[in-house]
Structure formats: structure tokens, C-alpha cells
Amino acid sequence: MAESVVLDPVDLHLLRLLQNDARTTYRDLATQVGVAPSTCLDRVTRLRRSGLILGHRLRLDPAKLGRGLQALLSVQVRPHRRELVGPFVERIRALPESLTVFHLTGPDDYLVHVAVADMADLQRLVLDEFTARREVARVETRLIFQQWDCGPLLPPGAQPGTPSAKSDRTRPDAG
To answer: Looking at the chain, which runs of residues are DSSP E strands?
Structure first.
């Protein structure tokens, strides 16, 4: 299990703000948190080096890319052996329709979040890329009607905290 990083209230506030908008400048972060810009830069650099901040991603709207239908595919692989699941996961990750792949416990082995153009495209994906594979025993499809982002992610026991952090969560354009 990964080691936890010790965070003080300033670190937590920085993380809340960055999770809502990773493009926030160090000057703006420093002003909102109440520290000098150089202190802000040092803290964020320390959080990156510790591995707590994993990176920055650009989020795209799948519908505006012609992929307006999203689904979750529950996949059962048989036999569930490393020499089969490794290539399976790499193939699924390489598909342009795949957004996220989870390895699970329970009756299903994988949960794959996909974005496709329409129902026919989803059917093609399931039949040609999933059930056509020898190791795939079963695929169950669930359509996604709506999705909400949650967060910010905080360590266990941390309180959502400062009034400015609360207002960050209620901004219409926040994360």
C-alpha cells in the first residue's frame, strides 16, 4: 500500500483549488490560500514530487467528438490468468472508445467505460472487440444517462474546511 503524504491545512486548500481548476496560476493560488507565491510553488512542487499529484489532464466532451453515447461494460474473462488478461487489458486500453478500465473483484473481472457514436457503434464495439475475444466469457452493457464529477478528493478525516473551498465546489464551471 502506498505511503500517505502528511498534509497541513494549506496543502489541503491548494489541492482543493487545483482539483477544481488545475490551470490556476501560482499567484492566484497563493492569494486564495494566503501564502507567498514562492511558498505556493514550493508546496505544489513538493506535492508533485511526493507522487500525490499525478499529473494534469485535458478533459474533452465525448459528445462534441461525435461520441454522444456512453456505457459501462462489465466483462468476465475466463480463464482469469495473467497471460490472458495482460494482453486483453492492453487491447482494451488501446481502443479509441475506451475511457477507463477497472480491474474488479466479484463476478465481473473488468468494468470498461466507453464512449461511442450511437447504439450501432456500441453493438459493433461489443461484438467485434469484446465478445469476439476467446477469453471473454460475458459482457453486460449499461448505458449512462448522466454523469457528475465528485470531489475534491481529501484524505480520510479531512474536513471540507474553508469557506473559499466550499464556494469553489459550488461554482458552475468548477471541475
So the answer is: 69-77, 98-103, 110-116, 136-144
Q: Is the distance from CB of 102 to CB of 111 less than 8 angstroms?
A: yes
CB 130 within 8 A of CB 95: no
How far apart are the two ends of the chain, measured CA to CA in Å? Answer: 28
Q: What is the pLDDT of residues 44-75, one digit of tens each?
A: 999 999 999 998 888 899 999 999 999 999 99
Report the amino acid identity of residue 53. I
Q: H or E stretch including 107? A: none
Four-residue CA torsion sign, 28, 31, 37, 40: negative
Q: What is the mean pLDDT of residues 107-119?
A: 97
- Residues 139, 73: contact at Cβ < 8 Å? yes
In degrees, rounded to 5, the angle at the alpha carbon of residue 170 between the alpha carbons of residues 145 and 164 is: 150
Cut 0.85: pTM above it: no
